Known about the structure:
Layout lengths: L3 H7 L2 H5 L12 H11 L6 E6 L5 E5 H17 L7 E5 L4 H12 L3 E4 L6 H10 L4 E4 L1 H8 L11 E4 L11 E2 H6 L15 E7 L7 E6 L2 H11 L8 E4 L6 H13 L3 E5 L5 H10 L4 E4 L1 H10 L2 H4 L8 E4 L6 H11 L3 E5 L9 E2 L13 E2 L5 E6 L4 E3 L7 E6 L8 E2 L3 H5 L2 E2 L2 E10 L5 E6 L4 E3 L2 E3 L1 H9 L4 E11 L3 E10 L7 H15 L7 E4 L13 H8 L15
Parallel strand pairs: 1-11, 3-4, 3-5, 5-6, 6-7, 10-11, 10-12, 12-13, 13-14, 27-28
Antiparallel strand pairs: 1-2, 8-9, 9-20, 14-15, 15-16, 17-18, 17-19, 19-22, 21-22, 22-23, 24-25, 26-27
Helix pairs in contact: 3-4, 3-5, 3-10, 4-5, 9-10
The site of adenosine monophosphate has 19 residues, from strand 14, strand 22 and strand 23.
Amino acid sequence: MQDYETARRDWNWDTFRSWLDYLPGQKLNIAYEAVDRHVLHGRGNKEALRWFGKSGERKSYTYADLKRETDRFARMLTDRGFGPRTRVYSLLGRVPELYIAALGTLKAGAVFCPLYSAFGPEPVRSRMAIGKAEVLLAGPRDYAKKVAPARGSLPNLKMVLLTPSGTAPAPDTVDLAEVLANTPAQFECAQTDPQDMALLHFTSGTTGTPKGAVHVHEAVIAHNATGRIALDLHEDDIYWCTADPGWVTGTSYGIIAPLCAGATMIVEEAEFDAERWYALLEREKVTVWYTAPTAIRLLMRAGADLPKQYDLSRLRFLASVGEPLNAEAVTWSAKVFGTPFHDNWWQTETGGIMIANYAAMDVKPGSMGKPLPAVDAAIVEIDNGGIIIIDEPNIPGQLALRAGWPSMFRTYLDEQQRYDKTFRKGWYLTGDLAMRDEDGYFWFVGRADDVIKSAGHLIGPFEVESALVEHIAVAEAAVIGIPDERAGEIVKAFVTLHHGFEPTDELRKDLLGHARKKLGSAIAPRQIEIADDLPRTRSGKIMRRLLKAREIGLPEGDISTLETPT
Length: 566
Ligand code: AMP
């Protein structure tokens, strides 16, 4: 993109459709566009995936290798009677098998649902039950700990594939390496319709169970276009997205977009470490880097002297997503890397980047940027039956997008009403509060609901509260996010106790342990306070917002900034 205003005037979704190949008869398959297409166009020898394991292993896959292995995986599924619409779940860390399974599943016309491997047994069970998981890929330990005990309550689960091979295979499981070794790498990519379901990503709301956002193959039009425009991806790029595919960023931009662009993508299995990250950026000559504010804050804490010890001159484009990126981080990165982090905004439901600071545009530090060409974004006020679009700049309201972009979620699985509620008068309501300035840049203000963002991960208070009240001592629980310098927010729980239980430190520790065991480290509260009572509305609803106002020192009578505009 040379110039934002020209692109906005001249480009629409048809422009972006024309950037893909399609299959005969206007059929469209994400895996075909991401992998097979490159091989057919003679780019099979190009390196697609460069993987670094936790123990120092390294593996490299060309586009031809990826085609062969995803063909094999798809064939393995269909040979066993799975195919269109089968829900294939993964509970794997960032290992090559995850990437092959994701693309192989799509190739078979089945639906891929990645779960974050740090989830505890309860989030795993609920998401598998809601999505009626039929096939699961997992590590032997995760399976034994998180899935095997609940297998009786997952009647749809027909096949469990374990990787790497365990010492003694668990009953009712299959060794992935073994079945693949006996499967030929021959498969004709499924001729899926653009509207066929492809991906299921779970997200959290204020109330109720996790929501399964349904995405279709047509989403690849947005993945490809935004990868090129918002992340400035080109075929010769070495690209590193640090997100885990268990979250939507790690799939849309950690698998699909870079492969569609024909780039080489880096995957590192291990978690954050400032020195290792800088060393990787230098050694692998990374040119485009997509990460999140929590990591950037940790890098800032590690100091500006550390990156000076590395040659990071190949870095051409830096982007950030998932939480507000403060202006200070943008200016810091410009100084340290010679180019600033470009903030962009989107969410599970949008499937792809919707608002961004583009390479072709000046970055406004602290702003999320401007809507993608072909996307209409507005600040709206919610009125009884409809919405009022706020035209004046710098007035906060709810961020809304005009419905109809290709990567828009098509429903919340089996919850059509919940889905319908997010749309008004042809606009999708994002649940975020934002402002637009006089130059058309959007600024994040806050969430319009009680959902918590911790280290870039969306956490529904209800899921945490439900796990806490399962403890024998807990009568009620209320969960909020409290500000944290590193993670943006951390989860804090307030609980009241049943008669006969004393608020001892020992009990508090026991509750922390209980939550961690059930929910896993990514979701469990970091702090638990035992309270005599919880504040509630006249109708008896617990007021999380009041708890939050007290916690962050806002006057209790003035919680207007925490109120939803609905
Ligand atoms: P998720 O669906 O887990 O990807 O989370 C989406 C939510 O993360 C959004 O609705 C925002 O609340 C938040 N978010 C994502 N990107 C940004 C950003 N650039 N600035 C501020 N908040 C963001």
